[in-house]
Design a protein that fits this description.
9 helices, single chain, Rossmann fold, eight-stranded mixed sheet, 287 residues
Length: 287
Amino acid sequence: MKETRSFAATETSFEVKGARLQTQAFGDPSSPPIILIMGMMASMLWWPDRFCEALAARQRYVVRYDQRDTGLSTHYPLGKPHYSFNDLADDAVALLDGYGLETAHVAGMSMGGAVAQEVALRHSRRVRTLTLISTSPLGVEGLPSSTKTYQEHSRSAEAIDWSNLEAIADFLCRETAMLAGTRHPHDPDAARALIARDMARAPSFASATNHFSLVSEERPARLQASDIKLPVLAIHGTADPLLPIGHGEAFARVVRNARLHRIEGGGHEIHARDIDEIAQAIIDHTA
């Protein structure tokens, strides 16, 4: 692996159990490392370049990667992913090994936040801190449901031909608009450009729909957010329509070393205008 002391991304890939994972690293390899795990159907490109660069500029060594069935990592037949949440958690630790890192800060967004929690619970000695963005604590029931408007939009996915890339792109464009907050205007052109970039980069973009099967996966009852002993920072938009702010607030109730950073008016997204605020919150948490 070639090292770099600039903030430009250095791309490489690693063989893990049953898969090959594509990664990018930003910043100085001697700085404290932070591993970024993105959510459902989303490659590492959904961690904005400027976000990664902002962390690197604040003396963090930032690694983002394509989870299985996204980007340039291994893709599986539709409906047959042959991997579990456990595998996704183990993948993150395998990347630590690949980069020669004994430990790292771990950040996850949305479904990636669930994976990050499993990393902390299954491999606690490898994790320094957790940052959980727009996600929900494992094993906590009775949290608020998505907004009715978002639920109506979500039900429309049942009519999508998930083998049709144009139909998927149109749905994802509507999805980004539905997930937007109220603090800043939604930029549909930027969203469409990112989706096009993501789809063009993936050899089998439709395979990302395999992530749907992971959401309903029966996971061991022992995996409870309340068992996390590490310092946790929950970053959550107060206008998140998919996982309302109550999900973020729950971390402060059930995890002893957790605190909540509210993004006022923020949605289920990393908005370009919120990058500096989110990056600084992470820097403070991982100091």
